[in-house]
Amino acid sequence: EPRPPEEFVCEDGRMYILGNGRENGGAAVILYPGVLRALAENSGCSFYIQPTSTREVMLIADNGEVSPKELQYTLMLANREGILPQEVLSDQVYYYDGKEQKISLVTIPEETRDILREINAIRYGSFPEYDQER
């Protein structure tokens, strides 16, 4: 039987971390009927969705100042350095439109590859463009 979602709100009320209080499977909370809709209605916002691990998802309010590319970069970095491989869900960032009540992908595959190159360059000290020029 599913447990109700646990919600953690940052001080400015613009970020939610949703989970179910269990060791695993908390990210599925966003699929519980009415959860995203209720958060969008209560906050008056749409949200970016970062699937941070199998344990939880992070919702960041769309205040017009958030960059999906920056969210994806932090997600991808965490997936490689802070999350166990078996807990990684995705390198993609999604968007929940509160008015339309619809989830969509907001990241672009080409940008995902570019970000991965940047992260690998930082992690492993490899700069393919520079190495190719030498």
What is the mean pLDDT?
83
Order of helices and strands: EEHEEHEEHH
> How many β-strand stretches?
6
pLDDT < 50 stretches: 130-134
Structural class: alpha+beta
Q: What is the rounded distance between the termini?
A: 60 Å
Work out the helix count: 4
The whole-angstrom Rg is: 16 Å
Major sheet description: 6 strands, antiparallel
* Percentage of residues in DSSP E strands: 15-25%
Overall outline: globular
Strand order of the largest sheet: 1-2-4-3-5-6
What is the element layout, followed by pairings?
Blueprint lengths: L5 E4 L5 E5 L15 H9 L3 E4 L5 E6 L6 H14 L12 E4 L4 E4 L3 H16 L3 H6 L1
Antiparallel strand pairs: 1-2, 2-4, 3-4, 3-5, 5-6
Helix pairs in contact: 2-3
What does this structure look like?
This protein is α+β, with helices and mostly antiparallel strands. Helix content is 34%, strand content 20%. It has a 6-stranded antiparallel sheet with strand order 1-2-4-3-5-6, with helices on both faces. A hairpin with a 4-residue loop joins strand 5 and strand 6. Helix 2 packs across helix 3. The longest helix has 16 residues. It is globular and about 45 Å long. 25% of the residues are buried. The C terminus is likely disordered.
